[in-house]
Amino acid sequence: MKTKIHTNLAPAAIGPYSQGLAFKDMVFTSGQLPLDPSTMAFVEGGIKEQARQSLANLKAVLEESGAGLDTVLKTTCFLSDMENFVAFNEVYTEVFGTDVAPARSCVEAARLPKDALVEVEAIAFIK
């Protein structure tokens, strides 16, 4: 049976989807935009600030499910401009490190919801 994951510490869904779903000992998150959950507005700044917020939102959804950043197996990262790849990687490395970083795909998207610079989703296991 799948279980809906919802936390007020991450932005509410802006469409017909869940923040995440758990199935058995796995959790699948929706893409997390760089929205401040209290205002539903983008954080100020550029790619680094938006990346930090997207990853903080991802962390909140994971923790609500019983998982965490340390249990992430795979991420998919969407960038609005591949010119931001190096700066995004700097923030991503702050969060996940390099020793046992999750498997990852990182692609440029023609356009992200609300014209975000970044969106990140994950698959993780529940502790």
Automatic annotation (TrEMBL):
CDD domains: YjgF_YER057c_UK114_family. NCBIfam families: Rid family detoxifying hydrolase. The lineage of its organism: Bacteria, Pseudomonadati, Pseudomonadota, Gammaproteobacteria, Vibrionales. Gene3D superfamilies: RutC-like. GO terms for molecular function: deaminase activity. Pfam families: Ribonuc_L-PSP (PF01042). Belongs to the RutC family. This is Regulator. GO terms for cellular component: cytosol.
